[in-house]
């Protein structure tokens, strides 16, 4: 039986704000945006053109049949999103200027310098710089 | 500033069980498995060789500095993982035989036949069959 894994979907509270964050701050490309009448929602697909990784941003209206309260704490099933960067220190300065200060790190962990920020919904976003030729 | 989006990380409660599900049931390839002493945890990277989508499965011990109680309900930030299939009816029969009955659907939504199962941690996994030449 063949399954093609084509994207990860996350739930967002403000679709405009999330599209801006993932495209303007993190540089993903907006591939598609569409309303989803069945779910009384709207979604956007963003992807990294180089790696092909795709993320679906899902927003639901309060009266959507699939909407549930958004937890105040971070969702523990969604551990984090992973982004590789060339220069962690410069990246953290860039993010801090835009209001995204690290919530953990920077730390050196194995062959990586690693820090985490939180996206507009509180989702953890890992930025890591490869310090050696090791594979992640 | 360049960010490379390289994987999505989810938290799992039993790493063996999750690796089996994502590799044996859904056919992803195990790329790497490693202990993470700093976090008192262990992780595995699985990916779809064809689409390049990658998923990191993160397990933490109870005394890990980053472990938190795993919510009983599904995590709302992680909406779902998306898998395209050729034949939804055959796919659902295959999944049902392995103990994964649909929790929603199958339904027809736009140009897609869609159903959801839950992975071993309760994370929603969407299976969709393209019914027309429309793009998702």
Characterize the largest beta sheet of chain A: strand count, sense, and whether it forms a barrel: 4 strands, mixed
Mean pLDDT of chain A: 85
Q: For the record, what is the CATH homologous superfamily label of the largest domain in chain A?
A: 2,3-Dihydroxybiphenyl 1,2-Dioxygenase, domain 1
**Strand order, biggest sheet of chain A?**
1-4-3-2
**Count of domains of chain A:** 2
- Outline type of chain A: globular
Order of helices and strands of chain A: EHEEEEHEEE
Q: How many angstroms separate the termini of chain A?
A: 29 Å
User: What portion of the residues of chain A fall into strands of 2 or more residues?
Assistant: 35-45%
Kindly identify the CATH topology of the largest domain in chain A.
Answer: 2,3-Dihydroxybiphenyl 1,2-Dioxygenase, domain 1
Instruction: Indicate the multimeric state.
Output: homodimer
Could you estimate the helical fraction of the residues of chain A in percent? 10-25%
Q: Return the structural class of chain A.
A: alpha/beta
């Amino acid at each position: 039986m063949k399954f093609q894994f084509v994207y990860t979907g996350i739930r967002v509270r403000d679709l405009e704000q999330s599209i801006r964050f993932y495209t303007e701050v993190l540089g993903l490309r907006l591939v598609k945006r569409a309303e989803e009448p069945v779910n009384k929602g709207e979604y956007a697909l963003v992807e990294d053109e180089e790696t092909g990784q795709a993320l679906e941003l899902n927003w639901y209206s309060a009266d959507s049949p699939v909407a549930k309260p958004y937890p105040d704490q971070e969702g523990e099933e969604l551990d984090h999103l992973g982004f590789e960067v060339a220069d962690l220190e410069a990246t953290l300065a860039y993010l801090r200027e835009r209001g995204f200060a690290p919530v953990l790190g920077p730390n050196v962990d194995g062959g990586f310098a690693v820090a985490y920020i939180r996206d507009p919904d509180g989702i953890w976003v890992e930025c890591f710089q490869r310090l050696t030729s090791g594979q992640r």
